[in-house]
Design goal:
The protein is an all-alpha fold. It has one domain: MetI-like fold (Orthogonal Bundle). Helix content is 76%, strand content 0%. The longest helix is centred in the C-terminal third of the chain and has 36 residues. The radius of gyration is 24 Å and the shape is flat. It starts with 19 loop residues before the first helix and ends in a 5-residue tail after the last helix.
């Protein structure tokens, strides 16, 4: 009698496996190579500062209190601008996806606004909203609005129409179909678009703070660059990178909570 062997489970498809330690190892290797290269002279200190010196700069920022003095206004501007742009963008995108007249009227407008370099509009926003916080909020909100709209109505369009017809055949109301079928089915695409929108928001935050801001990560980077202080400049860049990682991790947590039905 032949030996019975268990059949491995193959239902996972292409579902990605969590390998957190791989990313950590890659980061550690890159930092170690940079440290070794700058200490041995293989990499010029005029091109790349030593990671240990950048770490020491972080310590100075922490002890002096400048870290939170620059980080707090940046987080405030990012939160207000991104919430405005994303909330309006998702709402408009859902309306475009659901209503033909809204689609016919707004898609050409969104298509005309989308390719405009948002940074180029900063002087216009300064004229409209002043050089204070209003222009910064407006730039970040507008920069996140258009990609969020495009991602949202694209996600609504990609919902399986068979599921919608099935809901209609069971007598579900229009609102029940939207709430139970369309929005859950579009949520993966909306959250994927949100990653791009928030990355754009961080870029626009730096651009906005380089014009007329006393405090903020963008103002800090601009000041360090004008003094050619590479340690401070790279410290600011690392802060932005860490901010992007935190935002991406937050969206991942939201995905796990909202998309548990995907298995």
């Amino acid at each position: 009698m032949s030996e019975i062997r268990p059949v491995p489970f193959r239902g996972g498809g292409f579902r990605p496996q969590v390998r957190r330690w791989v990313g950590l190892i890659v980061f550690v290797l890159l930092i170690a190579i940079a440290e070794w290269g700058t200490r041995t002279g293989w990499i010029s200190n005029l091109t790349l500062p030593r990671p240990s010196d950048v770490l020491a700069t972080f310590g100075e920022l922490w002890q002096s209190g400048l870290l939170f003095k620059h980080l707090s206004p940046s987080l405030s501007r990012l939160a207000v601008g991104a919430v405005l742009g994303v909330s309006v963008g998702v709402s408009v995108g859902v309306l475009i996806g659901l209503f033909s007249y809204v689609r016919a009227g707004l898609v050409p407008v969104v298509a005309a606004l989308f390719p405009i370099p948002k940074i180029a509009l900063l002087p216009l926003f300064v004229i409209w909203f002043g050089i204070d916080e209003g222009s910064k909020y407006a730039l970040i909100a507008f920069g996140t609005f258009t990609p969020t709209v495009v991602a949202t109505y694209g996600a609504v369009d990609n919902v399986d129409r068979t599921l919608i017809r099935m809901g209609q055949s069971f007598g579900l109301t229009w609102w029940s179909i939207v709430r139970k079928i369309v929005l859950p089915g579009a949520m993966p695409g909306i959250l994927s678009g949100l990653r791009i929108s928030l990355a754009i928001a961080i870029i626009l935050l730096v651009a906005a703070e380089m014009l007329g801001a006393e405090y903020g990560i963008g103002a800090y980077i601009l000041e360090a660059g004008s003094l050619y202080d590479l340690e401070r400049l790279f410290a600011g860049v690392v802060i932005l990178s860490a901010l992007g990682v935190i935002v991406s991790s937050a969206i991942t947590m939201i995905e796990k909570r909202l998309l548990r039905w995907r298995g």
